Please model this.
Amino acid sequence: MALLPGAAPLVVPRPLPAWVQAAQQAAAEPPKPKTRTGQHRRAPFASHREIANRLAEDVTDAWFRARGGSQHAVPIGVVAALALVAPVDEGGPDLGDQILALSPDELTAMLREIWGIRWWQEPFLIERARPLHDWLNEEEPDADLAYAAHKVAHAAIKSGLLDVTGHKDPGRRSDTDVLSRLIMDMRSKAKRLADGEFHTPDPVCDLLASVLLGGTPVAPGMSLHDPAAGSGGMLRAAANHIRDRGQNPADLHWYANDIDELAVACCAVNSMVWGLGPNVVVAKADSLAEPDWPTRARAERAAIIAHRNRVFQQAATEAAHRKALRLLTNLTQPQEEAA
Model:
């Protein structure tokens, strides 16, 4: 069809596709802050034991990639400290995300606080765990060590540590021994063979606990001894068996011993993670050379608790003196100004 001279062609605008309109609208709006729910760390179809295996591999890899060196107690201690914390409100902010947001210096401060608070609650067990947190006693921890510890914390959280240990119910924290697998992965096979170090797998511990305690009446005040406890795998299995019977492991007395200092430290931490209660004695001794190790360990426990009580009393006295001094200052200051 011919157009009249001088007449402009009639152009009818075509509507933009819906996806283009949505993109333009999104570009015009200010960006929304990104939120993290923690779901990226959870493995809903993985058992706690599968998580523990993966965590040990990931943490070991992170430690050596960060050139953490041969101080294996440091990465194990980082995992142990994080296993001792749980969210105040399980329906509240994601604890894992909060930890991942910390800088190396902030994480170091958090680890110190975890061990410090736990020392007031369980001084004997925290003293037994000293190899795991001794590096934090330095006024200024080595920056490279803090960096490697930071990488370890990220690996542990992302591997699902809090899915195993981040529950208020100790029964849900007792499905597996996270620290046992980590010790085994951190140490070379040659060293483990030389030391004769073989941690009993969780299923075997569960079977032995059911056989040993299946026909045995369990009553409050009863004592359970393990003279070669390692990181406490048999204690965990026994505690679960007792819970399955409708009883509370905290009503019993628990005695654990091992010759390996690092295993003893992990056993002390695990006894808190698994909720074994206030009557736990962990010793470092050669059971064959010192068969009466429980007596010495009980004496050491009593001395450490007495020391904690003295420190607490001294702190309370100093706090009372400061409060009285502030009160006296507030009472006398107006008189001095009036004079």
Q: What stands out?
A: The chain has one domain: 48-297. The chain has a mean pLDDT of 85.
